[in-house]
Structures are given as structure tokens and as C-alpha cells.
Amino acid sequence: MKNDILIVDKSEIRLDKFLADNIDEFSRSQLQKYIKNGNITVNGEIKPVKYRLNLDDKIHIDISEEISDIDFVEPQEIPIDIIFEDNDIIVINKQAGMTVHPGTGNKDGTLANALAYYCAQLSDINGPIRPGIVHRLDQDTSGIIIIAKTNYAHMKLAEQFSNRLVKKVYYGITWGTWKYKKGLIEQPIGRKRNDPTSFNVNITGKEAQTNFKVIKESQYFSYINYLPKTGRTHQIRVHSAFYGNPILGDVKYGGGLSRIKGYMPGISKKMESLFKIIQRHILHAQNISFIHPRSGKDMSFGAELPDDFQNIINKIESLNV
After folding, report:
1. Are 132 and 122 a contacting pair, CB within 8 Å?
2. Which residue among the candidates 16, 62, 138, 250 is catalytic per the annotation?
3. Is 138 designated active site?
4. What is the pLDDT of residues 15-62, one digit of tens each?
5. Helix or strand holding residue 228 (H, E)
6. Model confidence, pTM
């Protein structure tokens, strides 16, 4: 796995050849797939495999998943909740449990499969298995996601994400009460060496910033508003866990049922009852604001808390824990 920046020391060389000459871990064909999938960018922009590099170009390498042998997204009739659509973009309220695009272990049933069925035209900048996909949400995170119909819209949106012009608002339920009721978590995030699917706060990782505010808290749980300034993989989940307040239901980062160990038997029993209705980590992307890629107008869209999220809030209040 790589998570690095290369500075180009020669010009007029193809992007894929330069990478093959400088990276031993992957074959040239693997690197070409990563370029097409958007894992490798030049000066913050997605470029074609044959792109001719210039001196001092910065190549950003973010290889965050295994190379998939899937090269085609099968259209599947899967319901999607469309909030807004025009000739350039689709704004969707993604349901929890839906993976954004196919990959190892998830070859169908994804948002990309649903989009391929629903829409005849989608951007292809990020390769054949990510039609229209500009950014992602974790499988179990519900909420707002933007889809690009055209390559022009995709590039303009990608620039906004790269320049941190896209504003996102999340809500989550965490374990415990927070020491500070609002603030900025500013801790770099990197991939775990012993588990390439997980991340942690790591001094050698990428800059990551998450603003947070406690909305409501009980003795054992808190309802949090998050405004991430950067968009690292699993960022909110990792930052919350680092502060000792993992997202409720987030088994990967210490927020699962095993956390009830050590509580009084009466409290543990109430928490076990709560977990009977928890099927995922309780995190929701509630709002996104951006500039329309063609009209230049300010756009903002929201998605109400899903039923399972609201049910858990009600359950916590009724249990008085």
C-alpha cells in the first residue's frame, strides 16, 4: 500500500511509465488501473494514463483498496432516493448498508450498479467501476452524495473537493460524554500497517481536521454534529475513536457491543437491548453545499435523519442511559 507524493524530476515522460520506474510494489498494469480509478492524481487532478508529465509535477498516490478484477458495472434495478437532478449532476440520499461502488467482496448491489441502470450517461473519469462517482460514503454511513453525469461536471466538482470548497455536515451518536463540548480535532490519519482496511491517528499520515459540537448527551452516549474540513477515509470515525468516543455501532473502531464490558449489570442489560436495533455505525451525512459545476450557483441539499437513527435516539432517551 502507498500513501505518498512523488515529485517529477523529468519532463515529457508518460505518467504510467514514470510510476513503474519509481514504484516496485506494483506492476505497470496495476498502476494503470489505479490511475484510471482516481487513486493516483497529478497536481490534484485526475489525468489519463498517457499524460505527459512536466518537471516538478506532484503525483499524489492514495492506494486505499485492493485492485479489483471487476471491469464492468452491471446495471441493476435498485431503488435510490434522488433529491435533485439536472443535466450535470444527481444528488442522492444513500441508504445505510449500500456500498458506493463494486470492489473486492462487493461485486454488485452497489450505488454504482443502481446508477448504471437508472442513468444512461454518467462520467467515466474514475474508470468503469465508478461511473459518476466523485466522492464516497462508507457502506454503513447514510446520507448525501453527489453524482456527476458528465466529465465536465466531474472535473469541476473534483476541483472543489480538492480545494476544500465543498462543505459537509454530519450527525452521529457516540459512546460516552465528551471532555470538550465543541472544538477542532486536528490529527493526521494514516493506514494501519497490520490492517490495510483500517486507519488510525498517525504522525506520518495525512492532515485531517474535524470540527465537532455536542448537541445532546446522556450519561453514556452523546449526539454530535460534525463539520469535517478535510475528507480522509473514515475520518470522523477515526477522530471520534481517538478522542475516546467511538461512533455507536462502529465495531471496527471500538464502538461495538464489546464496549459494554465493565459496566454495571443493569446498565449492560439496557445496552444489550439497545444493540438489538443497531445494525450499523450511527453516522449520517446530513447536508452538503457546493457550487454548481456549470451554472456557478451556490447549491445546498439536506437529508433528514433516517428512521433507524431517530429510533436509536428515542431508545436512548427512553432507557435513560
Report:
1. yes
2. 138
3. yes
4. 998 888 877 667 788 788 888 877 888 887 888 899 999 988 888 887
5. strand 221-228
6. 0.81
